[in-house]
Write a structure and sequence with these properties.
mainly alpha; globular; single chain; 13 helices
Length: about 290
């Protein structure tokens, strides 16, 4: 049986910036409108964290039973390594989805009932990424889903439940966070091109090939810097604080542009997540200061 430490590693805590950054950015956008509500921000954080943990366990389960993780370079996978049964990992995923659902219903009932439907779509998207008979993550659509769910939906949803509306600062922030989140997945899939190809997992990286995937990663980590400049132009000069993330984005890109492979690409994932977190904090600080 897996130890608590192995369960923690299997939850992939390095992906948590993908859940935390959207809530910070969305709260900053609500703050720019003078409508930040901290208890709603915390509930949104519970939803986001629970969903990403659910996604991670669901992917562990689905990839594990398919044999995709039998020869894996990256983080520990519970099912693929044989440390936990598929049933236990599947149960962990649905517990996380349940927690997200409870917090999401509370937010919906205090803002807009139709957000419950959005939440159901998010859970379905989390499960069918690698689950079901025809997972969309195996069709090269994972990066688009990450951009939508952990960029647009997460940031704009956080802004909406607090402010009751969305605005251009929220949209630009959502696109920046979505770009960073997609870049994390691109780096992950770039590293796994050989094993994914062998197992039949046709990710976007497998479709594009090694060279084009590296170009895509570079574009995605550059976009948030440009969007930070756009925020400074349309909202407040304080948004220039987002430029603090640029050196981290460069550090993230170095292993990719220098042709790193396998384990050499793992730092790119961590640095991209850190750049995203710094961008979101700087974005929120700038929007609050400029309100």
């Amino acid at each position: 049986m897996a130890t608590p430490a192995q369960w923690l590693e299997g939850a992939r805590p390095r992906t948590l910036p993908n859940a935390i950054a959207p809530v910070i950015a969305g709260t900053g956008a609500a703050g720019y409108l003078g409508e930040a509500v901290w208890w709603k921000a915390l509930l949104a954080l519970v939803v986001s964290l629970s969903l990403i943990l659910g996604v991670n366990f669901a992917n562990d389960y689905s990839d594990g039973i398919r044999g995709t993780d039998d020869d894996r370079v990256g983080p520990l996978r519970l099912v693929g390594s044989g440390l936990a049964s598929p049933e236990a990992v599947k149960r962990a995923a649905f517990v996380c989805f349940g927690v997200a659902g409870v917090a999401g219903v509370i937010l919906s009932l205090t803002s807009a009932w139709w957000l419950i439907l959005v939440g159901l779509v998010c859970v379905a998207g989390a499960w069918f990424y690698t689950g079901g008979t025809n997972p969309y993550g195996y069709q090269g659509l994972g990066e688009i889903a990450v951009f939508v769910f952990f960029g647009l939906v997460a940031v704009l949803g956080t802004e909406f439940v607090q402010a009751g509306r969305i605005d251009v600062t929220g949209v630009l922030s959502a696109c920046a966070i979505g770009s960073y989140s997609s870049a994390v997945l691109v780096a992950n899939n770039l590293r796994d091109i050989p094993t994914d190809t062998e197992s039949g997992k046709i990710t976007l990286a497998v479709r594009l090939g090694d060279s084009n995937t590296r170009i895509l990663f570079g574009v995605l980590v550059a976009v948030p810097t440009a969007l930070g400049l756009a925020l400074a132009a349309v909202a407040t000069p304080w948004a220039l604080l987002t430029l603090l993330s640029a050196p981290l984005a460069v550090r993230a890109a170095l292993p990719v542009v220098r042709g790193g492979r396998g384990p050499a690409l793992i730092p790119a994932l961590a640095q991209t997540g850190l750049a995203m977190l710094v961008w979101s904090i700087a974005d929120a600080a700038g929007l609050f200061l400029g309100a």
